[in-house]
Design a protein that fits this description.
Arc Repressor Mutant, subunit A, 426 residues, WH-like_DNA-bd_sf, DNA binding, five-stranded antiparallel β-sheet, four-stranded mixed β-sheet, Beta-Lactamase, alpha+beta, transcription
Length: 426
Amino acid sequence: MTDPWVALEPGTDPAERVRTIRVAHERFTAAGTVERPVRSVVAESWRRSARARVSPEDTGAAVELTAGDLGAYRAEHPLSRVMPLFRELMGGFAKDGEHLLAVCDAHGRLLWVEGHPATRALAGRMNFVAGARWAESAMGTNAPGTAVAVDRPVQVFATEHFVRRVQPWTCAAAPVHDPRSGRVIGAVDITGGDGLAHPHSLAFVQAVARAAESHLALLAPPVADDGALELTALGRDEATLVVGGRKVRLSRRHSEIVVLLARHPEGLSGDELLCALYEDESVTPVTLRAELARLRQVLGPEVLRSRPYRLGAPVTSDVVTVERRLGCGAVTAAVSAYPGPLLPGSQAPAVARLRRRLTDQVRAALIARGDPDLLSDWVHAPWGEDDVEVWRALAAVRPTAPVVARLCALDDELAAEAVPRNGRRS
């Protein structure tokens, strides 16, 4: 194979290839061994699928978002801004060729599935529909799920699919990245018959994905130069504040002050700030005034104002972004915007309360949604590795041996802590 990402070499007989790969698939599912002519990208995907305990006999994907939840999530997702572009570039091709245009998020969840009506009806029988989770860890090898898993454009031809129910289909997908961060935000896919195994279909979806990234870059708001403020404070002890296009890294105490003032655009008095920032009641107003004077030197008097203390321009923050997405039910989008607790090292009473409240809101939404990928991301993050309630929720939807073992260990630790020194449980 000259290009391992292309499903068929020129001149290959598709029917013969289907039979050959079917035999290899049966051998793999029976004995766990995979040999040529299976492409390396497919072999590796089969192994990941097996480790995730995907069954080759699955009959269809789980539909996780329906009706209002789906609409709210799509409205918040950045790929909604390029759906008109996808339809313009791919919609006619999908309908005329009796194919489907599909767009998924970074977790392999389908957000849009459009195209030829008869093909949509057939695909619907295996729940290839909007709101269904086609992550590789859920439905095995498939183009949109594998593309986001490996962050590469990929074709999956017929019997290369891990789940047998999907093997009559062929698909090609390419990941789409956030133009600012480079993070994968989803993938665009074309799904249909064997004709899509042609190299042109892979190049086509890759070109569409690049066009979408360019369009997102054009749609991104320019860096403000009018004094508008952009605060980033999640997952870090020292916040950053963008002031008129200038990024300022704040000290820990200055971070706490700016976070609190951002929550109170009406302003706070010196006494209110003193109580919000210091546990030690012996701290004097002079100490606070000195901190505010230093912060004013950093930001400028037009940004930090007094009587009462307040910020002199509207503030956007990552905290508000997470809260807004949670409020409209866009849990996955909220989690993607949550890189960790608010100023995790801060002991300021008001910051600690805000940190706990936001963390509890995200946790509650994760547990209620029950998405195994989101739950797994949480418990494997530093702030969630001992979160027994989230581990318990993950074990309920993905009871693999490592998950169950970790939950048992945490339960044992809690039980041990509940036994006082006299040996009696509290």
